[in-house]
Amino acid sequence: MRNKGIAYSAVLVVLLAAGLVHAQTAHLSDIVVTNTDEDLIVYFGVEGCFTPDMLRAIESGLPTTFTFYVNLYRKRDLWVDELIAEKELRHSVKYDPLKRRFEVRLTEREGEVLFVEGLQEVQRIMSEVAALKVAKLDDLKKGQEYQVRMRAELEKIRLPLKMHTVLFFLSLWDFETDWHTMEFVY
Amino acid sequence: MKASYQEAEKKDFLRRRRERYIIAALMVIISLLTFLGLRMSELGLELPVSSSILIFALINLNVILLLLLLFLIFRNLVKLLFERRKKLMGARLRMKLVLAFILLSLVPTILLFFVSVQFISTSLEFWFNLPIERSLRTSLEVGQNYYNKKAEEIFGFGNNISRLITYHGYMLVIREDQLEKFIGEKQREYGLASIRVFSRNLALKAAILDEGIDLSPFKDPGPELLRKSLEEGIEVRDVQSSPHGDLITGIVPVFSRTESKAVVGLVALSEFIPGAFVNRLQAISRGLEEYTQLKILKRPIKVSHLITLSIVTLLIIFSSIWFGFYLSKGITVPIQELAEGTKRIAAGDYEVFIDMESQDEIGDLVQSFNLMATDLKAGKISLEKANKKLIKSNIELEQRRLYMEVVLANVAAGVVSADAGGRIQTINKSAETMLRLDRESIIGKHYTEVIGEEYSRLIEGFIKGGALFRKGFVERQIQLPSGDGTLSVRVHLSVLWDDRRKYLGLVAVLEDLTEIEKAQRMAAWREVARRIAHEVKNPLTPIQLSAQRLRKKYGERLSRQDGRVFEECTSMIITQVETLKSLVNEFSSFARMPAVNLQAGNINEIVREAVYLYKETETGIRIELEEADELPPVRVDREQLKRALINLLDNALAAVEGKGRISVRTSRDKEEESVRIEVADNGKGISPENRSRLFEPYFSTKKHGTGLGLAIVNTIVSDHHGRIRMEDNPPKGSRFIIVLPLEIPDVTGG
């Protein structure tokens, strides 16, 4: 019985591991936590998220969305950290082959559509988060230790002919970064 | 037996009912799920999460089932291999069936698999071929070119307008109203949706819009675009989309009259592309988009199809293997059980029942087997019963046979039997003694080899004569030689028949009449003695008296010579009459022997008394008395026994003839539970030919003797239930031994 259990666990581990392989290459970089007079703001970028396959897919007109999660916690010694604020951002891009331009939508620029013609420009815009207001400074307590946690992931792609329901296991364009943390004392 | 069969049936019925319920439930669930799935796709609900999860779940379920099946299959295969190695009953057949199933399913399935793979590959290649892509791209290029063309057109118009504005100086403030008029004319001339003129500081100087086109969804050119054109002095293009059409805007710089490179303003021209046209173009674009995306997915789709196909193929293979196992089980398990059951029955265990319900020949075979076991068991039980009865009757027969043998062995008469062929079958102890034969040496031999020629001829005579078989028996009295004389034997020869009058043989019963004859002779003699005594005794007394009277009367009167003669004669008469009288008395006493009156007595005392009578009288003879110590009392008639001893002593005295030795001895024989009295002399002894007649009346070796002495002794000893015998007393003489039992058998009877 024990041997069976070990065998099953090994199989599961192998299956899971396969899925996670690609996720390990994408990561957050250039993380900066700072503030203005009123707000706590963060800057960061994602590296290693654009694989050649993904770029090909984007150029083929496949809509692609990056989701960024930014959470602010107040650290507590003997208890679970207190969640002060959580933010979710979306950066979407879709190529219009007719007009030969990329349509980029950012949550930070609600209602605005950026038309970009260069792929490199697109990559830069998609993978950067600049001056994201995380929380009001008034919500923070002086002298307290805080932690900012950030993560980026690629949203599930909608394939044509609803293939995404069948080919969900495809991880060609899947990525997910680890939670990156930044601590500071206010 | 019946109860266990019924129980098994009931269990089986319950199991099948349970299975039916499960199958029904499964079918309902599957139908429900299928229905839900269909409904979902019909409604076109965009539930990516749930449908993904569903597909995920289904595929996972499939994988799990496959793994489970794989595990079970391999386990069964391994088990089968082990069974085959151990040469268990049914393993080879099962292996064959399973292999057959595997081959049957594997070959077509794999064939189909490869064909399908090839088919899918070919189809995919066919769908995603170059001509289709090219045509799609070409179509897209048409659309793209249209936009380009339009943009170029607009730039052309724009440059024209820009030049005219520069030439006429319409950018000057004083000429603003002319500017608006100018661009109005141009708008109508070029058929544009709108013309806007911006100053150096991006302020709108003039704008003309086509009233017939709804430009509300579209925004004015953005400041970045304007700034770009202004600062760089280049044409800038922008396309805005709305649900009912696209707006292509081209921004062209307006240069200074005096400085050719200085930009003094901007002209933004827009042309409207109607929605219908745009939609068609977008359709082309979408088509190519999808095609391109699908092309990227070509490999994953192929792989997923292959995976699905593989899963299905494996499912088919494993299902068929499983079915092979199941089917083979249906055959081999009953065979195994049958073999097992047969072994058990052969070993004697009839409590065998194979629980199997099947409508095919195997089921019939199993049923027949069960019936056979039941019958065998019943047969065994009845056989055991019959066997017990047989054993019991055998024991009874054996006991009876033994009893008969004991009876035959102990019966006084001799019994000899012979079969139909004349071979001796049985002979009892008495017959052995009578005929002086040994049982071991005569059993199985023909009677002619065993008995003498004379008797063989006699028997042959009986058989051939016919009287034997007519009457069934024949009786003869014969004389057989024995150790000390002859035996008078009455032979009763009978024929043995079975129930069907089949001749089985002869049986001869031999009765020793010797003693009977002796007793008869004794009785006859006694009768004679009585008569003689009676007849003779009567005249003796008158004769004696007459002689005495004569002597008395005439004895004195006769002369000396005559008187002497007279005296001699009369004395002779008187003496002889006395002798005759004593003889007659002896006869009389022999004839009228009084009955014994047995009382407990001391043998030693009686012997002593008898011996004492002779001690003083005889001088030349030594009489020795040896008494045993502590003789138990014996039931005797004192006087009779003393008389017998006196007779023996008389004989002994006669035998030693005045000089010799006579010893009298008493002893106890513990083994025989008897007392012995021995009277031995060292006289002349008795010759062998006389020995057999020793105890007969009127047999005497003495010159003067009645011959009744030993007969009387014999009678007295017999009356005491004892025995007397005579032996030699070496070196010479005779010994008479009287044996008296301590326990006298109580013979009562009427």
Structural commentary:
The complex is a heterodimer of chains A (186) and B (750). With 186 residues, chain A is α+β, with helices and mostly antiparallel strands. Chain A has a single domain (26-185), classed as Immunoglobulins (Immunoglobulin-like, Sandwich). Chain A has helices spanning 2-23, 52-59, 119-127, 163-166; strands at residues 27-35, 39-47, 64-74, 82-96, 101-106, 113-116, 128-136, 145-154, 180-185. In chain A, the strands form two sheets. Chain A has a six-stranded antiparallel beta sheet with strand order 6-5-4-3-8-9, with helices on one face. In chain A, strands 1-2-7 form a three-stranded antiparallel beta sheet. Chain A starts with a helix and ends with a strand. The model of chain A is unreliable at 16-23 (pLDDT under 50). By secondary structure, chain B is an alpha+beta fold. Chain B has six domains: 1-45; 46-127 and 297-346; 146-296, PAS domain (Beta-Lactamase, 2-Layer Sandwich), CATH 3.30.450.20; 411-512, Beta-Lactamase (2-Layer Sandwich); 519-590; 594-741, Histidine kinase-like ATPase, C-terminal domain (Heat Shock Protein 90), CATH 3.30.565. In chain B, 61% of the residues lie in helices and 17% in strands. Chain B contains 20 helices and 17 strands. In chain B, the strands form four sheets. Chain B has a five-stranded antiparallel beta sheet with strand order 2-1-5-4-3, with helices on both faces. A five-stranded antiparallel beta sheet of chain B has the order 7-6-10-9-8. A five-stranded mixed beta sheet of chain B has the order 12-14-15-17-16. In chain B, strand 1 and strand 2 (204-209) form a beta hairpin. In chain B, helix 15 (514-554) runs antiparallel to helix 16. At the A-B interface, helix 2 and helix 4 of A face helix 2, helix 4, helix 7 and helix 8 of B.
